[in-house]
Design a protein that fits this description.
Layout: H1 4-13, H2 18-29, H3 33-38, H4 47-58, H5 63-67, E1 70-72, E2 75-77, H6 88-105, E3 111-115, H7 121-129, E4 134-139, H8 142-152, E5 158-162, H9 167-171, E6 176-181, H10 194-199, H11 212-220, E7 225-234, H12 240-250, E8 255-260, E9 266-272
Parallel strand pairs: 3-4, 3-6, 4-5, 6-7
Antiparallel strand pairs: 1-2, 7-9, 8-9
Bound molecules: S-adenosylmethionine.
Length: 280
């Protein structure tokens, strides 16, 4: 039997990052981060599981898929190969959208959609904070939607619709105030790293052209949105020019801006109805 610290040192020497080792140690002890740091010199609770997980990781499996778990903001989400592992930069989309929602709508109960929800990370994080607001999660993949449902268990302000982009919302006659969307946007398959390509769903990655799914939203959103609205997108880093053209084509009267991530890459697009801070 080994202590947690002995295992940390052992796998560090094999070139595995502390973040991955800690993740696995926490899972194999049933500890959170604090408890693990307080128990580093105690024997690990399930060494066989830990060694098995490390072997899977060393053989190329993403650690989140090994444990069917990913951290996003302050929550953990169930993940499997039917959904993209939620990325750290997407947390910025959620935090900034939450701020904009508060500024634009205050305490008024509103309806929000997370289109292309995957694991549900975006919509469920928002639903968890804005308990008085209704949040609809949509995805074309039934399998992804099942994962989102698992993650949304216990939240009674969340509902689920399957279908192509805005179609299920249009069919359902929804009237929305906010759409949050992180759609597939990779056009050049060669830019996708091997681990991602082998393990994450291709349906979550590829768009031809890269603007395909943004245009689908921009073309149709007025059919399901109230006069005062917010659209918030995650985007690929080279898409600012192409998306500016689309926004000008479809949202003549709207205010819009792009935002950079912490690596100085333009990664987010926010579109707001004109006069979006008036009290109506
Ligand atoms: C980039 S992933 C985003 C997942 C999640 N929102 C996140 O940020 O981690 C894109 C998602 O879009 C879904 N998708 C792909 N094509 C779609 C379509 N035509 N209509 C709706 N969803 C689609 C995929 O199944 C996938 O779950």
């Amino acid at each position: 039997m080994s202590t947690n610290r002995e295992l940390l040192f052992k796998y560090r020497k094999e070139g595995i990052s502390d973040a991955v080792i800690y993740f696995a140690l926490e899972e194999c002890n049933g500890f959170d981060h604090l408890l693990l740091s307080q128990n580093l010199d105690k024997d690990i609770k399930d060494e066989n599981r830990f060694v098995d997980a490390m072997n899977h990781y060393i053989n190329g499996e993403m650690i989140e898929y090994v444990f069917n778990k990913a951290y996003f903001l302050s929550k953990h989400f169930y993940v499997d190969n039917n959904v993209l592992i939620p990325r750290q930069e997407t947390e910025q989309l959620v935090l900034n959208s939450a701020k904009l929602i508060r500024e634009m709508f205050g305490d008024k109960p509103i309806k929000i959609a997370d289109v292309c929800t995957g694991s549900g990370a975006i919509g469920i994080s928002i639903a968890d904070v804005f308990k008085n607001n209704k949040v609809v999660l949509t995805d074309i993949s039934n399998e992804a939607l099942s994962v989102a449902k698992k993650n949304g268990e216990g939240l009674n302000n969340v509902s689920y619709l399957q279908g192509d982009m805005l179609e299920p919302l249009i069919k359902n006659d929804e009237k929305l105030d906010v759409i949050l969307c992180n759609p597939p946007y990779i056009e050049d398959i060669k830019t996708i790293d091997e681990k991602t390509w082998k393990q994450e769903p291709h349906l979550a990655l590829i768009a031809m052209p890269c603007t395909l799914f943004y245009e689908k939203v921009l073309k149709d959103f007025r059919r399901i949105m109230n006069e005062k609205y917010l659209l918030a997108f995650e985007i690929g880093e080279d898409m600012e020019e192409a998306l500016t053209k689309l926004v000008k084509q479809y949202c003549e009267d709207a205010e819009f801006y792009f935002e950079k991530d912490m690596y100085d890459k333009t990664r987010f697009l926010y579109i707001k109805s004109a006069n979006s801070y008036t009290n109506n």
